[in-house]
C-alpha cells in the first residue's frame, strides 16, 4: 500500500493507533483477513511504514491489538456526534462510515459487523457499516463489553436497576409460584388472613376487657346509687384542715345566706340578705359577675332581688341558676352570663328552699306558706303543688329520683315527697325546729335542728338511724344553758363524710359508720360567725361555707366579729397504703 499524498494531522500523533490507521479509508471493504493481521508486523499493518518517532508507542498498541484472536476482532469506531465525516475531533479521526473486519471460520467467507469505540479509547476514521459494539479484552483474552461484562452473557433489563437482594427475592417468588398450585396458594393466603384476623381480635379483646371492667364498675356504682346503697369510704382518709389554708372571699355587705357550686367545681354562686348575687371563680377568687340588690318595690325595674335571698340551686348541667327571696319570687338565671331569664310567681310567702332534680330541668321549691311546688324551667311552666307540712318549710333537697325531702321547721317532721304518687312519708325525731336538711344518697339523709341535734335518716324507717345531741356543744345565752343551733348541714354525695355548721366558731366534720347507724366526729374547723350554708365540691377536695353576722332566717343574735364572706376550706386526704391486715372493719 502507498501512503496518500497528504496525511491528516492525526498521523504521527499519540491519539491514533496503527490499527485504526490500517482500517482507515485506504482499506478495502472487506479489510485484511485475521490471518494477515496476525502475521503482519508493525510496519505492515498501517498504510505504509511507521513514521519516525512513533514506533515505540504505536508498536506497543499494535502488538496489543494483533494479539487477539481473529474471531474477536470486531473493530469499529463510533463517530462523534458533532464531527463531520473525515474531520479531526481532538482525540482522533471521526468519520460517517464504520470499519469492517472480516471474520473467517474454516475458510468460510462469513462477515460480521460491529459498532462502538475501538481499543485505545479514541475515535478512528473508517468506513463501512453504521453499527458498532463496544468491547474490551478480559484478563484471559475473552472480549468484554465496556461495563466489564462478557459479550456472550445474557443480561436482564431489570438487573441494571435492581440489587442482588431484590433479584434473589424475585427468583424465590417465581420458584414458589411455580412450585405451588392455585389451590395451595389460596389455602396459604386464607391461613395468613385468618392469622391476621386472630391477632387483631385478640388485641381488640384485651381493650374491650379493660373497658368492660371500667364500664362494669361504673354501672355497678350507678345501680347502687339508684338503690341508695352506694357509700364511698373517704372520711377515714381526710386529714385535719389547716386554718392557714382557708381562703376568704368578701363581697357581700350583709350576711351570706346561701351558696351553690357549679357541677364542674370551677365556680361558686353566693347570695346575701342585701339581695346581691355574686359569681366567683374558685381558682383565682375573682368576681366574675355581680348582680346588686335593689330596694323593695323595684323588682320590675331592677334586674336582681329587692329583698333577702334565702335559697338557691343550680341544674346538674350547669345551665340554669334559681334563686328565691322573701318577696315570694323565684328568679331563673343563665348561669354562664348571670342574665335573668324568667320569674316564677305562685308562692304566698317567702321561698325558703330550692332544688333541681338531677339530670333534668325540673325544679322543686319550698316556702313558708307550707307547700311544695314543682316547675319546669326549660319551658317556664308550673306543674303542681303539694301540701302536708303544718309549719313553715325551712329546707329542701332532691337527687335523681322524682321525689324530694323537706324540713318542716316547728312541726318537727322531715317529709319525703313522692311526686308521681302525690304521697309523702313522715319522719319524726328532733325535739326542736328542723332548720336544714341534705340528702346523702337516694335512701339516706341528714338533718339539723335548733335543739343542737344532728340526725341520720333512712327512707325506710320513721325514726332516725343515728342521733347526735348537742353536736356543737352548749352556749350561755342570757344566763341559760342551751345548745348551739345547727344552722347548716352538708353531705359529700354517696360517701360517709358529713359537715355541720353553727355559730359555735367552728365547722365540724363527721363520719357515718356502721351502715349509717353511727355518727363519729372527726375534725373541727375554726370559723367565726353564723354558718348559714355548707357545700362540698363534687370531687370532695374542698368545702365551701357561707358566713354571716346573723342567722339566715332572722336576727336573734349578731356576731360583730364575724365577716360576711364565703370561705373555701381545702380537704386533703391521706394516701392509702395497702395493708396486710385487710381493710378496716368499720
How would you sum up this structure, described in words?
The chain is α+β, with helices and mostly antiparallel strands and 586 residues long. It is 15% helix and 31% strand. The protein contains 6 helices and 36 strands. The strands form 11 sheets. A 4-stranded antiparallel sheet has the order 7-36-35-34, with no helix packed on it. Strands 8-9-10-11 form a 4-stranded antiparallel sheet, with no helix packed on it. A hairpin with a 4-residue loop joins strand 22 and strand 23 (423-428). Mean pLDDT is 76; it is low at 1-142, 155-160 and 577-586.
Describe the structure concisely.
The protein has 586 residues and is α+β, with helices and mostly antiparallel strands. The protein has six helices and 36 strands.
- In total, how many beta strands? 36
Mean pLDDT across residues: 76
Low-confidence stretches: 1-142, 155-160, 577-586
Share of helix, binned = 10-25%
Query: Shape, please?
Result: elongated
Number of continuous helical runs: 6
Please give the alpha-carbon distance between the first and last residues.
Answer: 128 Å
Rg, please?
Answer: 53 Å
Strand order of the largest sheet: 7-36-35-34
Q: Tell me about the biggest sheet?
A: 4 strands, antiparallel
- SS class: alpha+beta
Provide the β-strand percentage band.
25-35%
Quick tags:
586 residues, disordered C terminus, 6 helices, four-stranded antiparallel beta sheet, alpha+beta, 31% strand
